[in-house]
Structure formats: C-alpha cells, structure tokens
Amino acid sequence: MKKKKNNFSYARYGYYFSLPFMIAYAIFSLYPTLYTAVIGFTDLKGIGTTNFHFLWSDPFQNFRAVLTSPTFQTAFQNTVVLWLANFIPQMALALLLAAWFTDRRTKMPGQGIFKVIFYMPNIITAATVAILFYALFGYPMGPVNDLLVSCGFIKEPFNFLIKKASARGIVIFIQTWMWYGYTMIVLISGILGISPDIFEAAEVDGANGWQIFWKITLPNIRTILLFTLVTSLIGGLNMFDIPKLFLVGGPDNATLTTSVFIYNQAFSGAYLYNRAAAASMIMFVVIVAASALLFYLLRDKDEAALKKIKKQQMKEAKEKAKNELRNASHEEAAV
Fold first, then answer.
1. Which distant-in-sequence residues (6+ apart) come within 8 Å of 151 by Cβ?
2. How does DSSP classify residue 2?
3. What would the pLDDT profile of 6-28 be if each residue is shown by its tens digit?
C-alpha cells in the first residue's frame, strides 16, 4: 500500500498573517488614492457634497487649471527649493556624523548619548516645533531678537516672519534640524553592515580616513543612500506640517508648498475637491517619475552590466541549442 505524500504547506499562514494589513491598506490607503484619482476628472466641489459628474467633454480640465495656476506654480517652485535647500546640508551633516561615529580609529566616549540628542528633534511633533520657533523668532520681543540686540548685531528688533528670505531660511533650518538625526541613524546602520575585514585590509594597506570614506564606505552604502534620497524626495515634495503650522504658507506665499496648496483648495474657500485631487495626482506622477529617475541614476552599473552579459549568454546558448536541434533533425531526415 502506497503512502500518501505529505504536500502540506505552511505558506498559506503567511497570507493569513498579512491579511489584516492588506485589508487596512485597501480601506485606508488604496481606496482613497483611487477615489482621489477618479474625482480629479469630475466637478466635485462644495462642503458636504457627495454627488459629482464626470467631465466627459473635457476630462483634463482640472489638471490644466491646476498646471496653469500661478499659485500652484509658485507652490511647486517653493517645494523644490525648500527640499533641495534642506536636503543637501541634511545629507552632508548626516554623512559627517555617521563617518565620525563609525570611525574605527576615533572611539569617542558617550556616543549613545550624542546619537539620542541628534535624533531627538525627529520625535518632537511638528506642532510643537512650529510653536517653539514662532516664539523664538517673535517680534518685537523674542529670544533671538533679544540676543541679537544685546550682542550688538542689530540695533533694533527684526521681524523675521514677514520677510521672504528669512521665513524660508527658518523653514529650511527647521526641516534640516528635524531630519538630519534620522538620516544619520539610517546611514550608521548601513555602515555597520559593511564587513570589518574590508576596513582592516584598507588600514593595513595604509589608507587614511578620507580614502576609506570615499573608496570603501560610500560605494558600499549605495543602497542606503538611494533609500535616504528617495524617502527624502517623497517627504520633501509632500512637505506640509512646518510650512502650514508655522507660517501658513506666508509671507506672500514664500513658504507655500504643494501640499499646503492642495489643503487650501480642498478645505478653504470654495472646497474645490476636484482641483485638489488633480493637484494631488500631478504630484503623485512627479514623485513616481523622480523616484524612477533616481533608481536609474543610482543603479549598480557593474551588476547591470553583468546581468546584461548573462542575458546575452543565455540567449546565445538557446540559439546554439536550437541550431543543434535543427541540424540533428536535418541529419535524421537525410538518413
């Protein structure tokens, strides 16, 4: 009597465990995203309105209105400028600190305390940060103004919050201050994942710290750098909390971002849900395209070239096998 084969698989339990997440994702993320994409092609507007009609005669009317809006163009420019201006110093500072904390030659005491201090701004809520900096740069009385006047840098208090350049500078500083600690922790985790044997071999060969950083550390954390760049791109182009809570997009739209623009379109004035949805989908497309470009530019070229060679070799092997099979069949036919 033959025994039954045990074909029992535990793989299905993985699907069971992931089912709650998939349900939550479908309800709270996928459905809102699809619904937003749909109402971008409709005339939905007005608070409490649920009925809408598709713009069959001109389906891209909302998208064209958003793209030609001077306010949206200003918001998009501000978003890109604010992101680049805070990402570059943020990444430079995070790389410097990560290299310092992971340097095998410089073992600084109390590293854990410094890491906690640097990461702490990231866990403070945006509302708290906005209130804090609004108080710090208060006019005519505020700690920053008092310090500058007492030190003789300025003769009378300066209203930082009504000047475009100073308002943008403060927002850029806040974003850098809040996120450089998070970026530093991510980079440190990537550097600690590099095999110590590589660093030991470099030190034996006489490489200095600068050479080790550029020739070993950076190439080996390419994937981590790509992750931080893409996540910063997504977060930067969706920047909302600080510009909205701190200066409400002012002064004179100097800190207005696309997310604040979308919020104003949807929940202020005429409640233009269709225009807000169109602007959201435009930013979604921009983020996807920019992320794809980053993935392409920061790809591992050696690995890509190796895959291409292997693919070519497999293709040649298949062609060779086909030719051999065709020749064999011809020989059999001739016999």
1. none
2. P
3. 566 777 888 888 899 999 999 99
Residues in the chain: 335
Residue 198 and residue 218: Cα distance in Å, rounded? 13
Which residue type occupies 237? L
| CB contact set of 255 (below 8 Å; sequence gap of 6+) | 78, 82, 167, 168, 171, 243, 246, 247, 249
Q: Please report where in the chains the tokens 């060779």 appear, as a residue.
A: 320
Residue 98's nearest CA partner among 85, 111, 109, 113 is: 111
Per-residue confidence at 63, pLDDT binned at 50, 70, 90? Answer: very high
Residue with tokens 């100097």: 254
Q: How many CB atoms lie within 10 A of CB 138?
A: 17
Q: Give the alpha-carbon dihedral of 20, 26, 30, 31, to 10 degrees.
A: -150
Task: Find the DSSP H helices in the chain.
Answer: 11-25, 31-39, 61-67, 70-101, 111-119, 126-136, 143-150, 164-192, 196-204, 209-212, 218-220, 222-237, 241-247, 258-267, 273-297, 301-334
Query: What is this structure's pTM?
Result: 0.82
User: How far apart are alpha carbons 187 and 213 in whole angstroms?
Assistant: 13
